[in-house]
Amino acid sequence: QQVPMQVVFVIFMAMGNFLAFSIMQIYEVPVEHMFELMMGICLLNTVCIGIQFMVAKETPLERDPNAPKASKCAPVMNVVEAVKSSPGLLYHLAA
Length: 95
Fold this sequence. Notes:
mainly alpha; 0% strand
């Protein structure tokens, strides 16, 4: 399940790199037009996010009413427990 998603991400990154390269070819010396290029990128991102908001529907998760109430420290304790139970290789990679 992870490998196909990685392939999809690589394809999207390649398309993004090609789009960025194509945008940089608009001007002879792109550095002299950096403000225009950045505004174009911001506009493109805004359009993409707007499309995402129109298309995506989020269903909020609801807690089971019979579930016991969690304490205020539960999120911190969950993080501590996850760190304690992490494999040693993860610590080696983080160092």
